[in-house]
Amino acid sequence: MSGKGQTILVTGGAGYIGALTVLELLNVDFEVVVIDNLSNAYQASSQQKPECLLRVEELTKKHVAFHSVDITNKEELNSVFQKYKFDNVIHFAALKAVGESVAKPLDYYKVNVTGTILLLEVMREHGVYRMIYSSSATVYGLPDKLPLTEESRTGNCTNPYGKSKYMVEQILQDLCFSNKAWSITSLRYFNPVGAHASGNIGEDPNGVPNNLMPYIAQVAVGKREKLSVYGKDYDTPDGTGVRDYIHVTDLAVGHLQAIFHQKPSGFQIYNLGTGRGYSVLEVIEAFKAASGKDIPYEIVDRRPGDIATSYADASRANKELAWHASRNIDDMCKDTWRWQQKNPDGYKNSSSVICPGACSLDSKKRAV
Ligand code: UD1
């Protein structure tokens, strides 16, 4: 399917999942406009766009428009909507660190909840009524029953980040109920990992990674001494936590399918996962096999707020969006490893990374 003739606004499009989704949108000929406040994206002072979007342009040979806009600034949002006519909005812009959300709840509610409300107001003022919302399996909290379906109980979240995602889903549902013009799709991601197959676009965590896969990758590349495995006394086959890891490219494609199969009206929810869980020890083994590196680890106490097991029933997305996760744990580890090796410092110090030596697309010549 083609996106020709459609213009999509991607908020938070300079983030990990956002940039990979922009790449897939461009590949099928959507026009893409990104807004991002660069709170978690690298942009060199000599460049006019974040590094990840320059790389997206190099890989796709297509142009992406970029505006430095803060989602909580209604005037800035308004000026972007005055400049373009959008057919749809994919809304990624949010804060996402669970621990930080406990320490700074107001920041999380302001950006994730108030920011979304302001965006929706501006959309309505400009007659744009379609949105794909970036939600999370975190809205399920402690599962009653597995696998998790879209009908599973939600709202039992233990931290402000999770609560903010849950609250926004409630707001979106009420909004769609209030006016049939709205069509909003909420995608509940399980555990996104991996990188673009080129190794040029991936996750660039600020400081010490909170999540398992980027931490393992940094141990493998020698940046960190060993992994702490949070608990080996869970009620799982090997005692470590089990999660449904999903390749970020499969996830990105899920957004395209959500646009292509969007209903004319109403609020829809889809799980995006593989439907299969892997334990922490299984992920370590898979990464060792993919990288050929040893991953030293020690078992430590459980991390507060963690659950034993989480995995998706993704059959609704399979059926209604014609979407399946096609990449397996080996692909996830290999692509993470390629990205980590090519970009040991993330996007910083990067102009030599894509094409070392004589390069026809150095940073000065890149299209901006
Ligand atoms: C976390 C967030 C979740 C968010 C998701 C995004 C928490 C409690 N939850 O999910 O809200 O939507 O990231 O991807 O932070 N582990 C280790 N050692 C580590 C890191 C993790 O053993 O250094 C274990 C965890 O205990 C868990 C598994 O690895 O069993 C996955 O952890 P992680 O990658 O942080 O994801 P989640 O906690 O599932």
Q: Could you characterize what this model shows?
A:
- With 368 residues, the chain is of the alpha/beta class.
- The protein has one domain: 3-Layer(aba) Sandwich (Rossmann fold).
- The protein is 36% helix and 16% strand.
- It has eleven helices and 13 strands.
- The protein has helices spanning 16-27, 51-60, 74-83, 98-103, 105-125, 160-178, 212-220, 248-260, 280-291, 315-320, 329-342; strands at 7-11, 31-36, 65-68, 88-91, 130-136, 183-189, 191-193, 227-230, 242-243, 245-247, 266-272, 278-279, 297-300.
- The protein has a seven-stranded parallel β-sheet, sandwiched between helices.
- The protein is globular, with a radius of gyration of 20 Å.
- The model is unreliable at 352-368 (pLDDT under 50).
- The structure holds uridine-diphosphate-N-acetylglucosamine.
- The site of uridine-diphosphate-N-acetylglucosamine (UD1) has 21 residues, from helix 6, strand 7, helix 7 and strand 8.
Radius of gyration: 20 Å
Q: Largest beta sheet, briefly? A: 7 strands, parallel
Spatial strand order of the main sheet: 3-2-1-4-5-6-11
Beta-strand content: 15-25%
CATH architecture assignment name: 3-Layer(aba) Sandwich
Please describe the topology of this protein.
Blueprint: E1 7-11, H1 16-27, E2 31-36, H2 51-60, E3 65-68, H3 74-83, E4 88-91, H4 98-103, H5 105-125, E5 130-136, H6 160-178, E6 183-189, E7 191-193, H7 212-220, E8 227-230, E9 242-243, E10 245-247, H8 248-260, E11 266-272, E12 278-279, H9 280-291, E13 297-300, H10 315-320, H11 329-342
Parallel strand pairs: 1-2, 1-4, 2-3, 4-5, 5-6, 6-11, 7-10, 8-13
Antiparallel strand pairs: 9-12
The chain binds uridine-diphosphate-N-acetylglucosamine.
